[in-house]
């Protein structure tokens, strides 16, 4: 068993921790709000005014910073490219210098502790990520394997049969009876449908996202459905590109179909009371089919007047997407996924109030494109969170009694919560809460800094800003966030339960990296 994560807190760190914020215990709202305001104000003092307050711990680690485990494979993070004042290679120290770090060990690298996986094993691992649920076989019942085996055989025979049925249908509508012609057309049609099935299979790797981000994925799927319909529309303008365009459209629409079918049951489950989920699902699908038939009939009547194809498509697409957005927005879930957890914690920090189920779901972000910056990451890898060894050495003593470490990486503008191997579900929830509290500090700090820049520019004065900030430059924020989390996390959990929220670490989608330990000095 690897040694427990954490370093002994040196005397300098103890002196730093002695400077606390007075939190009025009777009123959590005042405590959190005032603590954040006071801490940010102190952290934003000129460097000369807070040298003693941000004195980093005079800690040192020789050689190895820590061990990390991801999916059963371990890495060792080794200090390199530096020497201490005594001339010892691979040694890192940390000390304060007006709020910034003066690292001796400037870099580190990840060294794998196991040999690389054989190519065959890597291929099998890749295939498993597409065909079995995460955590298999522990995440499913024993009957899952025979069920999926017979289901796969059923689809095998069904796919083979579809070639002959498609060819017969094409012949019946006037396609040439020539074997070559009808066979080629049938094969093209099968290729189009086959491309769609491949797209459906590839998107299935999203895995648990269908459980915790189901509203976001449901709306994204409807966006993809309209994109696929638009590509199909383009085949009229480019008939010579029918096959590639049709294949592309089928891939997109089948990806959308995966999101629809995968999120349907959890949404209906939110409305079912008792053991009537099957009845609720059947009636919901019946309503959808009736509406679909009515829409088809109306479209047939309108198409007889030969309206503009593009104008009709644009109007109907807008109606489809607006209805989809309102449909997803109306779903009220009692679980705290990443989006709703963010809403709940932000509300608690600013007002001391945890929103109700309806309020939290209404404020949740529905459209979350992949290029949008995510300011918080849970269960990240060590190399993503820390820039240099000294920052880790300075930060880790603050979390020696916790099963996680929280830091801010200014180069990526992101708060990272690293989980230790002993972390339990409640520790992961606490790490996520802590990360959002620290993010509130960082945002307030940036807002204050921008306000002072604006004031100084109006006065014609200049204030020095470190162009290359490090993790350690934000150590005061991390210290004060620890004090607030200690006093307020229990209150947040109690108020969340009172509002009916169900909190689970799996809904926050934590990463699989875990810190295993620190090599003793």
TrEMBL record:
Root UVB sensitive protein C-terminal domain span: 354-510
InterPro entries attached to this UniProt entry: RUS6_N, RUS_fam, UVB_sens_C, UVB_sens_RUS_dom
Domain Protein root UVB sensitive 6 N-terminal: 27-88
Domain Protein root UVB sensitive/RUS: 121-351
Pfam families found in the cross-reference section: RUS6_N (PF24162), UVB_sens_C (PF24160), UVB_sens_prot (PF04884)
Record-stated family: Belongs to the RUS1 family.
Protein name stated in the entry: Protein root UVB sensitive 6
Taxonomic lineage: Eukaryota, Viridiplantae, Streptophyta, Embryophyta, Tracheophyta
